[in-house]
Specification:
The complex is a heterodimer of chains A (about 200) and B (about 160).
Chain A (H helix, E strand, L loop, with lengths): L1 H4 L4 H24 L4 E12 L3 H5 L5 E10 L4 E7 L1 H12 L11 H26 L4 E2 L3 E6 H13 L4 E11 L2 E11 L1 H14 L1
Helix pairs in contact in A: 2-5, 2-7, 4-5
Chain B lengths: L11 E3 L5 E5 L3 E6 L3 E7 L4 E7 L15 H14 L8 E6 L13 H14 L3 E7 L5 E6 L5 E5 L5 E2 L1
Helix pairs in contact in B: 1-2
Chain lengths: ~200, ~160
């Protein structure tokens, strides 16, 4: 089980290498989607105690705008793209070539632009992971959620929490023209997917 | 992982997953829950409260953090009352959470099972549920007050509820 293997740091380093490669693909896809404006980089692959997750990911008790894509089946997981409301609307506006929306409710077009962003990022990661483990992964359609970031993250961690008191998080940051944006992506693989990745990494390493 | 704090400062304590925090009035505890349960037990006369952030329904005999599971969290909370010299008779229980955040898809939908397991653990301990706000598909920000034993529940797109 990778939870234990990670203790020696080797598997964690291998996973970091893997996710860095997947992030490279995701960044290329993101650049194409935003006409070269926005790229993504891998921040961290780390194990965190359950009680420290919200602090580690810095979601606090804030209400966030999120796009969630889940991997269904045993080789599961969740990819969560998190924005605060202002940043989310700025991204939607720049993608749609419009002024930033001011209405309290997000328009369907704004939601759709953000969901497509999540879809592009998610598919880039799924494709990279599928190539590595040589098994099919089954991503859901992306969906749009406005809720407490910690609540959504908590649900994504449930399968890992059932197996361990520490959880594995992969965190990705966004950049625009070299400057960091306050948007985040968190990918949470289930224990079964972690095991499949670890097996594949042993071949690669 | 248990944080047993009995200080009287008014600063809010944030109760993370699998943590249990205790305190006297005017202390307040806060938890953000989705499928997890925020369970608050309160002694009205002595103004002492304990809040647990319960993650899963059943320990199935596993050791580790008692606050993580419904069946081990409730006995641990009662132990914390006793350790602070507070009797465990006439306690009130309030709970919030147990949502299914990703609808019918996604990782481990455990909200309903968590609600049932907490209710069962409380029945076994002979503790009455005074109020609850559970289920649905939204997260909740919960503030538990040791003065009156009130539980304030905020949820996206919903009016704030005081239990």
């Amino acid at each position: 089980m990778l939870h234990h293997e990670c203790e020696n740091g080797t598997a964690l380093a291998g996973l970091k290498e893997l996710f860095a490669s997947a992030t490279h693909d995701a960044s290329a896809a993101m650049c194409r989607w935003t006409n070269g404006i926005i790229s993504v980089t891998l921040d961290e692959v780390r194990q965190v105690p359950l009680e420290a997750v919200s602090e580690a990911v810095a979601v606090g008790d804030a209400m966030l705008t999120m796009v969630v894509m889940t991997l269904e089946g045993e080789l599961g997981g969740a990819l969560i793209v998190m924005f605060d409301d202002v940043n989310g609307r700025q991204l939607a506006a720049s993608l749609l070539g419009r002024e930033v929306g001011v209405e309290a409710e997000w328009s369907e077009l704004e939601k759709s632009a953000l969901m497509e962003t999540g879809n592009i990022l998610g598919c880039a990661y799924v494709n990279a992971l599928t190539r590595l483990i040589d098994q099919d992964l089954h991503p859901s359609a992306p969906y749009f959620i406005q809720d407490f970031g910690a609540s959504v993250l908590q649900q994504a961690l449930m399968t890992q929490a059932a197996m361990s008191d520490d959880v594995l998080l992969c965190e990705i940051g966004f950049h625009r023209k070299g400057g960091r944006l306050d948007w985040r992506v968190v990918f949470v693989p289930t224990p079964a997917l972690q095991t499949a990745l670890a097996s594949a990494l042993h071949v690669v390493l | 992982m248990i944080t047993a704090t009995t200080g009287t400062n008014t600063q809010e304590a944030l109760v993370g997953m699998r943590q249990i925090v205790a305190g006297h009035a005017p202390r307040q505890m806060k938890a953000i829950v989705g499928s997890c349960i925020a369970l608050g037990l309160h002694h009205p006369r002595l103004k002492f409260g304990v809040l647990a952030h319960i993650v899963l329904p059943d320990s199935a005999g596993r050791g580790g953090s008692p606050g993580k599971f419904a069946d081990t969290a409730v006995p641990k909370m009662l132990e914390m009352f006793k350790e602070s010299g507070v009797p465990t008779q006439n306690l009130t229980a309030k709970l919030a959470g147990g949502a299914n955040m990703f609808g019918s898809t996604g990782p481990l939908q455990i909200g309903d099972a968590n609600v049932e397991a907490v209710a069962l653990a409380l029945r076994r301990a002979g503790i009455r549920v005074a109020a609850q706000d559970v289920g649905g598909s939204r997260g909740r920000r919960v503030t538990f007050d040791c003065e009156e034993g009130q539980m304030i529940v905020e949820s996206a797109g919903q009016p704030t509820r005081t239990l």
